[in-house]
């Protein structure tokens, strides 16, 4: 039996950034998907505990660090966990602002985003919507090859973000709904941005993808 060959678009890499919002520690992860192969490029946290109780400084740190990560890894899509409803209204407001900073950073680079409920992420990764952080981390260890991170204490926040990215991959990106302009469209609308090294790199990648789609045998 002859199996159908994967299309060239399926073999092109997609980079997904996952974020687990937090007001003191925010987890993030970046994966590259090529067909069914998933490679973990990084997973770590934005640690804001040393900033004390100054919420404005924390929001600024989130926005700036997210931009650094976006410019380094050039993600195609953002998957972010939606804040869960808690009893403390003030905590919910702060968490929502933190999530908003991460989303705003991606939208400023024309990167679409999708929100996933915590139960959806856990269900996708472990099969149970009530799984613990430890169970999510254990399943990710079984599923993926995880590079080491600097401090073990950061691990669960980082793996939570990795779970969000993997959940988005399992959804095949079908839920992308906001800020849906591609880098190619962005550069077409803003030709002067080609002067930016990051934009130039992304444009080169977009061009390479376009050529591969047009000439799949190349």
| Biggest pleated sheet | 5 strands, mixed
- The CATH architecture name reads 2-Layer Sandwich
Q: Note poorly predicted spans.
A: 177-190, 193-200, 210-214
Computed Rg: 18 Å
Strands side by side in the biggest sheet:
3-2-1-4-5
Structural class, from helix and strand content? alpha/beta
CATH class equals Alpha Beta
**Percentage beta strand:** 15-25%
Instruction: Name the CATH homologous superfamily.
Output: Ribonuclease H-like superfamily/Ribonuclease H
Global mean pLDDT: 80
What are its keywords?
Nucleotidyltransferase, domain 5; five-stranded mixed beta sheet; globular
Give the topology.
Elements (H helix, E strand, L loop, with lengths): L7 H4 L2 E7 L4 E10 L2 E11 L7 H19 L3 E5 L7 H19 L5 E4 L1 H9 L6 H11 L11 H16 L12 H7 L7 H18 L4
Parallel strand pairs: 1-4, 4-5
Antiparallel strand pairs: 1-2, 2-3
Helix pairs in contact: 2-3, 4-6, 5-6
Cofactor: Mg(2+)
GO biological process, one term: DNA repair
InterPro entries: RNaseH-like_sf, RNaseH_sf, X-over_junc_endoDNase_RuvC
Can you offer a commentary on this structure?
- The protein is of the alpha/beta class.
- It has a single domain, classed as Ribonuclease H-like superfamily/Ribonuclease H (Nucleotidyltransferase, domain 5, 2-Layer Sandwich).
- The protein is built from 8 helices and 5 strands, in the order αβββαβαβααααα.
- Strands 3-2-1-4-5 form a 5-stranded mixed β-sheet.
- The relative contact order is 0.17.
- About 12% of the residues have low confidence.
């Amino acid at each position: 039996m002859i199996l159908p060959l994967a299309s060239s678009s399926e073999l092109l890499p997609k980079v997904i950034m996952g974020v687990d919002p937090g007001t003191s520690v925010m987890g993030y992860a970046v994966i590259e998907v090529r067909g069914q192969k998933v490679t973990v490029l990084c997973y770590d946290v934005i640690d804001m505990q040393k900033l004390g109780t100054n919420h404005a400084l924390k929001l600024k740190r989130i926005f700036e660090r997210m931009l650094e990560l976006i410019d380094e890894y050039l993600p195609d899509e953002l998957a972010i966990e939606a804040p869960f409803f808690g009893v403390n209204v003030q905590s919910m407001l702060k968490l929502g602002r933190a999530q908003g900073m991460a989303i705003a950073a991606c939208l400023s680079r024309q990167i679409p985003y999708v929100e996933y409920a915590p139960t959806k992420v856990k269900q996708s990764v472990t099969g149970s919507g009530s799984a613990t952080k430890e169970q999510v981390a254990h399943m990710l260890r079984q599923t993926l090859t995880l590079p080491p991170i600097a401090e073990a204490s950061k691990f669960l926040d980082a793996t939570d973000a990795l779970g969000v990215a993997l959940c988005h991959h399992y959804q095949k990106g079908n839920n992308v709904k906001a800020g849906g302009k591609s880098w190619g469209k962005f550069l077409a609308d803003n030709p002067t941005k080609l002067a930016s090294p990051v934009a130039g790199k992304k444009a080169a990648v977009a061009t390479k993808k376009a050529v591969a789609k047009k000439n799949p045998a190349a």
